[in-house]
Amino acid sequence: MSVHIEWTQGVARTFDPGKRFEDAAPFVSVVKLDKIGPDTVLLSADLSQRKLSRGDIADLKAELTAAGFELVHCWRKIGRKVPYGGRVIRTKGQLALWEIPL
After folding, report:
1. pLDDT tens by residue, 12-34
2. Residue 27 burial by Cβ neighbours in a 10 Å radius (0-12, 13-18, 19+)
3. CA angle at residue 94 from 89 to 100, to 5 degrees?
4. d(CA 8, CA 24)
């Protein structure tokens, strides 16, 4: 018998320039990540102290791509512009599920 453990949940923390997790620096944003497929991650529970910059998003994209992900899903309010070449794949009530290629 063999056992394989695959972690399916994680947290992404965003830091100001020059600050790092290893230095116990305060973070400016935390996002919950759920692996929902072999190449897809669901982002939720974005708790930010400030608006994330393009650089912050580029860093998160780089980390997700390095981890083997190709798609990001996230729920947002209907009517918001879908970023980065993404598309709405489903709606429920006032929410839209976005799919964004990395």
Report:
1. 999 988 999 999 899 999 999 99
2. middle
3. 30
4. 25
